[in-house]
Structure formats: structure tokens, C-alpha cells
Write a structure and sequence with these properties.
It is a single chain. This protein is mainly alpha-helical and 155 residues long. Helices cover 72% and strands 6% of the residues. The protein contains 6 helices and 2 strands; from the N terminus they run ααααββαα. Strands 1-2 form a two-stranded antiparallel sheet. A hairpin with a 7-residue loop joins β1 and β2. α1 packs across α2 and α3 packs across α4. The longest helix has 32 residues. The chain is globular and about 60 Å long.
Length: 155
């Protein structure tokens, strides 16, 4: 591997670590504002992005163990952030849905971040943004897989 590539990989790794730390701190602050923990908050984010999900679907999306997802959904339901409802097509299935007022509360919490990211995004052309999106998507998939491995007791 060339020296330039090694340096670039170190810079990507460092930037990723800084982004990860900033994201954890931001989402911790959002969770604190709502009175819930970071994994609870991120589960709400998964439901917002994917729509109503079963507990099994939340396990797949999050990489968390089934018992952890059950605990998260129980806490979110106690706080009034989600509801468990029967699936209209298959009454045996229980789906978790976000409370109707949650999107407005999320928008309020994210206003400052979205404003800042809009300014950052304006620095890049469409092709560059597509490249960045591809990298971030692949990195998120790798991290979700690593989360699942840790949740199963792997190393």
C-alpha cells in the first residue's frame, strides 16, 4: 500500500471517529432532552426512517439482541413515544409505530444540525455528494453488522 493511501486511510479513520463521537454526543443530548437513552432515541430514528416495524424488524435494522429491542420498545411505550398495534393484514403480528406528535418533536431537536449540514452540503457538487452517500451507507452497514456480532457475543 502506498504512503499516500495509508495517510488518506488514517485521515478517513480519524474523521470517522470524530463524526462518530459527535453523533453519539448529539444523539445523547437529544435523548436527554426527551428523557430517554441513546439506544431508545436511535430506535425512534429507525422507526421514523423505516415506518412501523415488528420487534424482529427492529432487531435486523439495529443489530441489537431481541431482548434489548423488547426493553427499548417497553421504555418507549411507557414514555408515550411509540404504540404497539396489531397489523391490519395479519392480526397475529404486532407492529411498533411512532406517536403522531413525534416527527414535529424530532424536527425541533434537529433544526440546528440540519441548518449546519445544509451549509456543509452546499460545498459539494452532486457527484461528490453521491460518493459521500455511498461511503457513509457502506460504513453504516459495516457498523450494523459489527453491532449484531457484538450482540450475539462475538468479537
Amino acid at each position: 500500500m502506498g504512503q499516500d493511501r495509508e495517510q488518506a486511510l488514517r485521515e478517513v479513520s480519524d474523521a470517522g471517529r470524530r463524526l462518530s463521537a459527535a453523533a453519539v454526543m448529539f444523539h445523547t443530548a437529544v435523548g436527554e432532552r426527551l428523557g430517554i437513552g441513546p439506544s431508545d432515541w436511535k430506535t425512534l430514528d429507525l422507526l421514523d426512517r423505516h415506518g412501523p416495524c415488528t420487534a424482529g424488524e427492529l432487531v435486523r435494522h439495529s443489530g441489537l439482541a431481541p431482548a434489548s429491542v423488547t426493553g427499548v420498545v417497553d421504555r418507549l411505550e411507557r414514555h408515550g413515544f411509540v404504540r404497539r398495534t396489531r397489523d391490519e393484514q395479519d392480526r397475529r403480528r404486532v407492529v411498533v409505530t411512532v406517536a403522531p406528535d413525534l416527527p414535529a418533536r424530532m424536527a425541533e431537536a434537529f433544526a440546528g444540525l440540519l441548518r449546519g449540514l445544509g451549509e456543509v452540503n452546499a460545498r459539494y457538487d452532486t457527484e461528490q455528494l453521491a460518493l459521500i452517500a455511498g461511503y457513509l451507507s457502506a460504513a453504516a452497514e459495516a457498523q450494523t453488522a459489527a453491532t449484531a456480532e457484538l450482540s450475539r457475543g462475538g468479537s
